[in-house]
Amino acid sequence: MEAKYRGVRIAQIKDWLNVVLFLVVALIGISCRTQVVQAADISSNITGISGQDARYNGQPIDPTEVAKWDQSTSYELSYHFTIKPGTQVKAGDTATVSLPTGTKFQDDQDFDLPSPDGTIVAHFSATTGASSGQLTFTDYFTTHNNNMTGSINLFVNGEVSGGGKGNDSYILKNGFPWSGQWSDGKTYPKDANQRYQYVEWDVKINPNNKSLSNVVVTDNLQNTGIVGIMPDTLTLQWDDGHYTPVPIRDYSLIFSPASGTPTSFTLNWKGTLNKAVNLLYLAKVTDSAYRTTGSATTLNNEAKITGNDAGTGGGGGGAITDKAATADAYVKLGGNGNGGGTVYNVNVKKLWENVPTGVTTPAIEAQLYSDGKATNQLSTLLPKLMCQRTTPEQRRHSRLMRKIIRRR
After folding, report:
1. Where are the alpha helices (DSSP H) in 176-283?
2. Which residues lie across from 77 on neighbouring strands?
3. Cα 235 from Cα 399, distance rounded (Å)
4. Greater confidence, 313 or 115?
5. Among 102, 146, 107, 141, which residue's Cα sits nearest to residue 122?
6. Which one of 180, 316, 352, 368 has the largest count of C-beta atoms within 10 Å of its C-beta?
7. Do 170 and 325 contact (CB within 8 A), yes or no?
8. What is the CATH number that goes with domain 165-334?
């Protein structure tokens, strides 16, 4: 009796398993097919993004000149890229943009490439010190898949040590993007978007160790609406390789304007200056376009020195005029670009003849031609309901279930 009961239970379990299999097969049979689209690297289908394609001042890159580029100067490169006709660009697809040999990104890059109507075509990103960056495309070119082009403008540095602009005898000026711990022990980080909030400005006074008197140094930010001096970060150090602070008693500082955020200052040296001095400070970047979108911005700073040269330490002496001893420096942050394509609408209709009632026609692909030549673009014509065909195994289970149901 017990064995008979077990046999009945086993038979019932098998029947229920067959029912479950039938339901699975049925769901597969009536569901529409889906495809998982994965992002791809389409660099090989794009021209104009190699280091050799970069332009400087509108001209092709000269490797001999690039080899002279220094680490402190910002050089603007431009690219114009074209995506090959027929390339299917999906959202998430990427492409690598390479810099010329001997150059690197001076700061992190993070900005969008808009189309003429404002739609985002792609996003560009790169890290400080890298020699290449990445384009990540949206689905814009999925529909605007003709004449697919774009432009990118980037700021880079060279590899040669040194740099700094100005009069080598009296004053030099330089600037850099800044994030990290400053000499005051405080940390000045990037913002929430990983863009620079601060730039460092450096002034080297009396680089040749001349004997100077009545020294007055003025420093003026040129972009007063988008950057401001942070007075508490200003420091003076002897240029002795040990960052030795200059005693406060040796100089005086006056910031202007006196209230609010200063944009300039005047340094008066007390007594004779016969050694080189480094003056450093941070300025806060408030450019909303750069801080919000990463759009390129250029910051300019000018320093001047006046006084008297006693004629020692190399070179002649005499009065130092601000016209002869001026230093300009630039910090260029971010980058920019754009892109675009056109939409060609082609109406294609397939006429089916002698199709039995109730039969769903299959999807077909139409090859598009232009002037008798294949464009390598396919137009997929979908039926109203495109369902997955069942396999012989699935049909066998279906017949089995019908028998089980009839038997019950």
Report:
1. none
2. 56, 154
3. 88
4. 115
5. 141
6. 368
7. yes
8. 2.60.40.740
Q: Read off the tokens for 346.
A: 């082609």
Q: Report whether 333 contacts 285 (CB < 8 A).
A: yes
Peptide bond preceding 257: is omega within 30 degrees of 0, i.e. cis? yes
Alpha-helical regions (H) of 71-216: 140-143
Q: Quote the pTM value.
A: 0.63
Q: Which two tokens stand for residue 204?
A: 């080297």
Residue 277: its H or E element: strand 277-285
Give alpha helix (H) positions in 46-192: 63-66, 140-143
Please name the residue that has the structure tokens 């020692």.
Answer: 312
Cβ atoms within 10 Å, residue 162: 10
Mean pLDDT of 200-218: 93
For 43-159, CATH number out of 2.60.40.3080, 2.130.10.10, 2.60.40.1840, 2.60.40.1280 equals 2.60.40.1280
Mean pLDDT score, 32-59: 83
Count the alpha carbons within 13 Å of 247 in the hemisphere toward its beta carbon: 5
Q: Could you tell me the residue ranges of all domains in the chain?
A: 1-31+392-408, 43-159, 165-334
Percent share of the chain, pLDDT over 70: 73
* CA–CA distances in Å: residue 250 to residues 176, 231, 306, 405, 406: 27, 18, 17, 103, 106
Q: Where are the beta strands (DSSP E) in 49-145?
A: 55-56, 59-60, 75-83, 94-98, 104-105, 109-114, 120-126, 132-137
* Structural tokens at position 221: 């930010």
Residue 256 neighbours by CB under 8 Å, 6+ apart: 262, 263, 264, 265, 266
Q: How far is CA 371 from the centre of its chain?
A: 40
* Residue 245 burial (10 A CB sphere; 0-12, 13-18, 19+): exposed
Q: Tell me the per-residue pLDDT of 324-383, one tens digit each, with 9 for 90 and over.
A: 566 666 777 777 777 877 766 666 666 777 777 777 777 777 766 666 666 666 666 655
- Candidates 87, 108, 134; CA nearest to 197 is 108
- 275 to 139, 239, 248: CA distances (angstroms): 60, 8, 16
How would you class 43 by CB atoms within 10 Å of its CB: exposed for 0-12, middle for 13-18, buried for 19 or more? middle
Q: Is 261 helix (H, G, I), strand (E, B) or coil?
A: coil
Site of tokens 């066998």: 396
